[in-house]
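Many introductory courses stop at the sequence. We go one step further.
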Amino acid sequence: MSATVGALRTTIASVNSAVGQIDTAIGEIAAGNYDLSMRTERMAAHLQQATGDASRLSEAVNANSEGARAAAELAALSTNRADPGGSRPRPRPRSSA
């Protein structure tokens, strides 16, 4: 009977040791999950900021494009209104007063 009790104690000690190792591993996995969650949240915030920055940049590029288009239209209008012969108006002589 004492051999059976000894074997049972050894089995229980092994199970206890395995449970301790499993508990340690669960804690490490939980810590890793938390760390990954925090890094993912930070990355999501950075991506949202980058998306906003890209949107504002796109708006600025579109506004510049519209400005350039308007300037080109004004230049074309000015060219069309110029003397058809291509001559430029002569500057007025300055008075020597």
